[in-house]
Amino acid sequence: MDAFDNRSLKWVCAQIASMDYAEALDLQRRLVSARIAGNLDRNAVLILEHSPVFTLGRRGGLENLKVPESFLKQSGIPVVQVERGGTITYHGPGQLVVYPIVRLRDLKMRVVDYVERLEEVMILTAADLGVQAERNALNRGVWVENRKLGSIGVAIRRGVSFHGLALNIDPSLAPFGWVHPCGLQGIRMTSVSKERDCPVSMTLAREVLTRRIEDVFGVQLVMTDLKSLP
Amino acid sequence: MKEIDDLTIPDLRFAQDHEWAKLEDGGVRVGISDYAQDQLGDVVYVELPQVGETFEQGAVFGAVESVKAVSELYMPVGGRILAVNEKLEKAPELVNADPYGDGWMIVVEPADLRQLDALMNSAQYLAVLKG
């Protein structure tokens, strides 16, 4: 798709049906350490869904709760503080999450360029699934008019990026209503299935997303299982 | 994106992770390089340590957030934090506008000045950037 197209470049990729947030965070941190130390000699991508969780970015975000904390406790949905950029967000079943563990220097990409590529992955995936999404000057991520379809938050440790993107395919949108997502007031979240007003196959969405990562980064994703990762 | 030749690289010491360090009366002033700020894009938030905290060389002393990306900051030399740039709380964009001046981040009381001498000089840093 551009001058960087080079399919001989291979990244390893683990397709994970569903993983608890804390467990995925541990895995990411382990992979980042391995990538820095050189025990992981290729960039890696995790594609997964999370069980329901609210996460706070480096700048926090509890002030963006629209319901009392006790309400969240009752809902049984945990709140986790993490090192990524951005503020509060929700993850849950029906949302595809991508965590690329990549050495930015190898990509010859600035942080801003990398974030734009992640947006591009979401825009192309949404288009393949019949939804026209775009960037919005309001905020990073991808949008359908003023409705947010996908979010981005990354962290960079010793030149290695982790965390990534979350694209709403067919999640329950109710928990997003309990917060000001990303610290923005007066915005609504949306999903591919809501925009299309019909259910969307998660299997299909995952296939499309995987292919679009390959296109946008000009790489071949080599499937691996978790046991083969450091 | 700036071309390498458009980057400002003053006569300072530089660490592998793009922090600069400058020996002054009373301490070592630290910030991030012009290259680093250009890589990050618009800085929206800078997290700095408390005065009095002590960190080893290479330890994380803070973080800088741009476009939904948080990058860690590392001590180019170990030591105690003597001052932090409180202006960055209200005006994080100074890191982009003036990375070697008003965009400075911390002043460190160095534990061992030999660590400073072992950092790259501007010519060596430029060579690394040219890769």
Count of domains of chain B: 1
Average pLDDT across residues of chain B? 94
Can you tell me the residue ranges of chain A where pLDDT is under 50 for at least 5 consecutive residues? none
| Rg from alpha-carbon coordinates of chain B | 14 Å
* CATH C-level category of chain A: Alpha Beta
Helix count from the secondary structure assignment of chain B: 5
Summed over residues and divided by their number, the pLDDT of chain A gives a mean of 91
What is the CATH-assigned architecture of chain B? Answer: Beta Barrel
Give a short synopsis of this structure.
Chain A has 230 residues and is α/β, with parallel strands linked by helices. In chain A, 29% of the residues lie in helices and 31% in strands. In chain B, a hairpin with a 4-residue loop joins β1 and β2.
Any chance you could write out the topology, listing elements then pairs?
The complex is a heterodimer of chains A (230) and B (131).
Chain A: E1 10-19, H1 21-37, E2 44-50, E3 53-56, H2 69-75, E4 79-81, E5 89-91, E6 95-103, H3 104-107, H4 111-128, E7 134-136, E8 139-144, E9 147-157, E10 160-168, E11 188-189, H5 192-196, H6 202-217, E12 220-223
Parallel strand pairs in A: 1-2, 1-12, 3-4, 9-11
Antiparallel strand pairs in A: 2-6, 3-5, 6-10, 7-8, 8-9, 9-10
Chain B: E1 13-14, E2 19-24, E3 27-32, H1 34-40, E4 43-47, E5 54-55, E6 60-66, E7 69-74, E8 79-84, H2 87-90, H3 94-97, E9 106-110, H4 114-117, H5 122-130
Antiparallel strand pairs in B: 1-2, 2-3, 3-9, 4-6, 5-8, 6-7, 8-9
Describe this structure in words.
The complex is a heterodimer of chains A (230) and B (131). With 230 residues, chain A is of the alpha/beta class. Chain A contains six helices and twelve strands. The longest helix of chain A is centred in the middle third of the chain and has 18 residues, at 111-128. The two termini of chain A are 31 Å apart. The relative contact order of chain A is 0.22. With 131 residues, chain B is α+β, with helices and mostly antiparallel strands. Chain B has a single domain, classed as RNA polymerase II/Efflux pump adaptor protein, barrel-sandwich hybrid domain (OB fold (Dihydrolipoamide Acetyltransferase, E2P)). Chain B has five helices and nine strands, in the order E-E-E-H-E-E-E-E-E-H-H-E-H-H. Chain B has helices at residues 34-40, 87-90, 94-97, 114-117, 122-130, and strands spanning 13-14, 19-24, 27-32, 43-47, 54-55, 60-66, 69-74, 79-84, 106-110. In chain B, the strands form two sheets. Chain B has a six-stranded antiparallel β-sheet with strand order 1-2-3-9-8-5. In chain B, strands 4-6-7 form a three-stranded antiparallel β-sheet. In chain B, a hairpin with a 2-residue loop joins strand 2 (19-24) and strand 3. Chain B is globular, with a radius of gyration of 14 Å. Chains A and B meet through helix 4 and strand 9 of A and helix 1, strand 6 and strand 7 of B.
